[in-house]
User: Fold this.
Amino acid sequence: MADELEELLSEQVAYYRALAPKCEVNSPWPYDTASCAALSAALDEFQPRGDVLEFACGPGVWTENLAAYASRLDALDFSPEMLAIASARVRQEHVNFIQGGGRERVRTATRPRRPRFRAHSCP
Assistant:
C-alpha cells in the first residue's frame, strides 16, 4: 500500500512539474474564469481569517485570493516549478511558500500554530 501511494504521488509530482511551464504568472489558467469568480464569491461569503494552510497551491491562482483574507498563509506544493510561479504571482509578506507534500511536519520560527482554515485547490 505504501509503495502504491508513493508511486501515485510521484506520478502527480511529475505531472504538475511538466504542467508548470504552461502556467503564466498573470494568467488564471489552468482554472477557468467561472471557477475563479465562484471562488472569490465563496471567500467573500466565508471570509476565512487567521492562519490559513493551502495544500497544493500550484501556480498560486487561489493563493492570491486567500491572501486577501488570511493574517498568515502557508502555501504548500510538491512542485518547485509551481512554487516559483506562485511566489512570483503573490508577493506578500504574510504568505509563505513551502515545498512538500503535507506529510512532513512544517516548522516555523514561531511556535507551531494550527490553521483555522485549510484550503485545497485542483483544476
